[in-house]
Amino acid sequence: MTDLTQLPGLRRPQRHYDYVDVGPDIYVDSFATIRRESDLSGVPADAEKLAVRMIHGSGQVDLAADLVIHPGLISAARTALEAGAPMLCDATMVATGVTRARLPRDNEVLCFLNDERTPDLAREWRTTRTAAAVSLWEPHLEGAVVAIGNAPTALFHLLEMVLDGGPRPAAIVGCPVGFIGAAESKQALVDLSGEHGIDIPFVTVLGRRGGSAMTSSALNALAQEQE
Fold first, then answer.
1. Which residue out of 16, 56, 140, 157 is catalytically annotated?
2. What is the pLDDT of residue 7?
3. Which mean pLDDT values do the consecutive 10-residue runs of the chain (227 residues) have?
4. Which of 69, 167, 181, 195 has the most beta carbons within 10 angstroms of its beta carbon?
């Protein structure tokens, strides 16, 4: 604990606003508000806490209507993580947002965006660094829990690896954000089973919404049932 006597001149400012500033109360009230204001009737029963955390990470109570959650997602992801599978993340912000204390087996959380090989691959393949980094997942990909919350190109690249016969993850959190390719890449994930006969449990949010906070919130929900 910090010794406040060693911080001369440091003081809390005078209270000018009426707000809740007790951490545990904020936490409890936030999830209560989400359940009160969101329509979770279309969410699989075992995925309610997942949906609530994703709403919490985005601040958007209407998110539930756009969520597509594979019925086997929760079971597949939790089984994989309990067995020690890694989490593979497309962006450092996604990886940083994972609460390590929630991981059941001190699972590795890996991101290869800043790997020294990534820029050369991106230049050679004429693609984004985020997409190129996904290929570096290959030795870790079989049975992993993967999360894409930034680049649509990364999700397209992952699906193309799978379609080419590459390793298959246990579960996919596919929530890239943006205006170019985001909606299309997520629709391709939704259509993977019906169009190609490849059934990998997943969660995604239709349309342009997504992002690192929403994606890491989903990973935290998958890592541990406790809210």
1. 56
2. 72
3. 71 90 90 93 94 94 96 98 98 96 97 97 97 98 98 98 98 97 98 98 97 97 91
4. 69
16 is catalytic: no
Tokens, residue 19 = 């707000």
Question: In the prediction, which pLDDT does 119 show?
Answer: 97
Q: Tell me which residue of 182, 180, 158 sits closest to 171, measured CA to CA.
A: 158
**Bridge partners of residue 204, in order along the sequence:** 68, 174
Q: Name 171's bridge partners.
A: 145
The full 3-state SS of the chain, as one line of letters, equals: CCCHHHCCCCCCCCCCCCCCCCHHHHHHHHHHHHHHHCCCCCCCHHHHHHHHHHHHHHCCHHHHHHEEECCCHHHHHHHHHHCCCCEEECCHHHHHCCCHHHCCCCCCEECCCCCCCHHHHHHHHCCCHHHHHHHCCHHHHCCCEEEECCCHHHHHHHHHHHHCCCCCCCEEEECCCCCCCHHHHHHHHHHHHHHHCCCCCEEEECCCCCCHHHHHHHHHHHHCCCC
Taken in order of first residue, the domains within the chain and their CATH numbers are: 20-223 (3.40.50.10230)
